[in-house]
Amino acid sequence: MKIVEANIADMQQKPRGRQRSPEMQQxxxxxxxxxxxxxxxxxxxxxxxxxxxxxxxSNAARxxxxxxxxxxxxxxxxxxxxxxxxxxxxxxxAGAAARKSKVQAKALELxxxxxxxxxxxxxxxxLTADGVDLGVARPGTMVGAVLRSMSEFTRTGSNKFHYKG
Length: 165
Fold this sequence. Notes:
By secondary structure, the protein is of the alpha+beta class. The protein has helices spanning 8-13, 22-33, 50-64, 93-114, 120-129, 139-148; strands at 39-42, 66-72, 77-86, 117-119, 153-157, 160-163. It has two domains: 21-86; 94-163. It has a three-stranded antiparallel sheet. The protein is elongated and about 75 Å long.
């Protein structure tokens, strides 16, 4: 290695960061333009392999701000948008606050009425009976997290809570 003098003006004129290849920019643009229900595939050319294409898709999706599902086959790599669409954002935050509020209200109602221990499943069942769909993949986890954050309840076990009043 050899260290030599350099002109600061040369450095300041150069763009910062890494320059994307035209192929990478094209992949970012394709992922950014994807709509729900659409899929695309990358086919390796030359010395590329399916194994090497997966990380490129992941990186391009991150740059594009999208969540993608990636499936590798023998001769190509398929990708499509995952539910939720944008990466790094918190989709439906207003919906999350409304869900939390509904869970808190129902848990307090159950706690006051029963005066005994309740479980996350008790709250889910009561909400379901009222026609409320929480719309989350793991409702027990969500309800348990809400109950743990409430001062009116003490956790007694896995998704089991005692109403303190």
